Amino acid sequence: MIPRPGRTLAAPALATAALAALLVGCGGGQGDGDAAPSRPAAAKATAAPPAQAPAKSVRPLARSVPVGLRIPAIGVDTPVMDLGLASDGTVEVPPVTADDRAGWYRHSPTPGQAGPSVLLGHVTVGRYGDGVFRHLARLHRGDRVEARLENGTAAEFAVTAVRTVAKDDFPTEDVYGDVAGPELRLITCGGPRDGEEYRDNVIVFAELAATGGT
C-alpha cells in the first residue's frame, strides 16, 4: 500500500522515499557519513512486539516545524534541522560536523500531526566521535521522546518498538506507511561494520502520548 498524499508524504517525495531508497548517514570512520541505501523489504532483525492502542487517544497537533528533540533515557537534547531529498532521490542526512544534530525529513508530517514524522541522526560523526543518536538502540518500550515545535508547543511520544534491521531489508512501508494517528520514527545506523560503514539501521517507533507548552 502506497501512503496517500496529504496523510504522510507529499506525492513526489512519497514515491521517491517509498519506492527508491532511504539513505541513512552513519558518519563511520573518517568518511562523509553516507551509508549504503536500503531497498524496500520486510524487516528481519530484532523487533519488539507491536504496541497496543493507547487507552486514551491524544488529539493531533497543528503543523509546526520541530526545532528541538529530547530523549531523557539516553541523554539526548539536540536542535533539529530540516532535511529534504538529495540529488539522487535519497533522503538527506545531517552534515558530519562537531556540532552534530538531528534532522527532520520535511516531506513527512511534523511531530504531532497525523502520520509518521521521520527524524534522522548519526550514530558516529567521523573524527568528531559519537553522533547524536549514538545510543538510540538502548531505548525501550515506554521511554519518552519530546519534540519541541516552532510554535512553542511540545509533542511527547512514548516508544512502542525498537528495531534493528539490515540495510538491504529496510522496512519502507513500516516507516513511511500511512497510520491513523500521530507517530514518530527515529532512524540511525547500527550493528557491525563493513569497513567504514554500518550494516544495519536502528529504527525507533513511537506514538503521541501527550502535548503541551515547552
From TrEMBL:
<dbReference type="InterPro" id="IPR005754">
    <property type="entry name" value="Sortase"/>
</dbReference>
<keyword id="KW-0378">Hydrolase</keyword>
<protein>
    <submittedName>
        <fullName>Class F sortase</fullName>
    </submittedName>
</protein>
<dbReference type="InterPro" id="IPR023365">
    <property type="entry name" value="Sortase_dom-sf"/>
</dbReference>
<dbReference type="Pfam" id="PF04203">
    <property type="entry name" value="Sortase"/>
</dbReference>
<feature type="region of interest" description="Disordered">
    <location>
        <begin position="30"/>
        <end position="59"/>
    </location>
</feature>
<feature type="compositionally biased region" description="Low complexity">
    <location>
        <begin position="33"/>
        <end position="55"/>
    </location>
</feature>
<keyword id="KW-0732">Signal</keyword>
<feature type="signal peptide">
    <location>
        <begin position="1"/>
        <end position="20"/>
    </location>
</feature>
<dbReference type="InterPro" id="IPR042001">
    <property type="entry name" value="Sortase_F"/>
</dbReference>
